[in-house]
């Protein structure tokens, strides 16, 4: 049976580091690192995410400001708000909760956030810095995955890693971070031939494809480490249940270590968002 990689426990350790850094910044500069969260519309999942982020920020001592906008908000109005947050020295991180309503251009919104306040790590300048190995604000979910991986493999050098999924939010930055850690990296996706065989060659599999229980035990070599980024709601006996992109029950029988869903990558994403907020504040104050 695989070792469980406990995201709740590891995220609590990260949040302790965040709280310590908040106190250091407060003592040195009399300033509280502050995150501005922008939520447009009434998407239920987004409301839950924002509520959890604000709750964890409060627990770690990070300041938080919420801006809730109507679903029919215009591009100009959203851009104006972001511009004001960019120019507010009391705001150190800006997060615009995605997805946005259809009349809003997500790429334009992401590019309008100042790179130094882009705590999601999605701005093109931060993406380019990550790809070229320069210091930057790194996307929260891949960053959290790396912290979890290092709990199992302090030295990742030489490991064969397969990332299943090629999104800009998880798949591509995950691959870049694994490359920086000296892994041999393959990105698998919907057009990959013999994808099961590709995964079976991996020491590490990161599943970020957005399909419930897509990867089963036949894809995993015995002893491999599996990081499940997926969060999918399915019906089981008339009840809604959250499952990952990995068939946990079967894969846990062959993997060496695995993250559960829920309680795995999810808590780490929020912890790394707050870690990025303190890093952004430290950079802006230096």
Automatic annotation (TrEMBL):
Catalytic activity: (6R)-5,10-methenyltetrahydrofolate + H2O = (6R)-10-formyltetrahydrofolate + H(+); (6R)-5,10-methylene-5,6,7,8-tetrahydrofolate + NADP(+) = (6R)-5,10-methenyltetrahydrofolate + NADPH
Domain Tetrahydrofolate dehydrogenase/cyclohydrolase NAD(P)-binding: 139-284
GO biological process annotation, one example: methionine biosynthetic process
Pfam families, alphabetized: THF_DHG_CYH, THF_DHG_CYH_C
GO molecular function, one term: methylenetetrahydrofolate dehydrogenase (NADP+) activity
Ranges where the Tetrahydrofolate dehydrogenase/cyclohydrolase catalytic domain occurs: 5-120
Reported function: Catalyzes the oxidation of 5,10-methylenetetrahydrofolate to 5,10-methenyltetrahydrofolate and then the hydrolysis of 5,10-methenyltetrahydrofolate to 10-formyltetrahydrofolate.
The family this protein is said to belong to: Belongs to the tetrahydrofolate dehydrogenase/cyclohydrolase family.
Quaternary context: Homodimer.
Alphabetical list of PANTHER family matching this protein: C-1-TETRAHYDROFOLATE SYNTHASE, CYTOPLASMIC, C-1-TETRAHYDROFOLATE SYNTHASE, CYTOPLASMIC-RELATED
This protein's name: Bifunctional protein FolD
Organism: Halomonas saccharevitans
Gene: folD
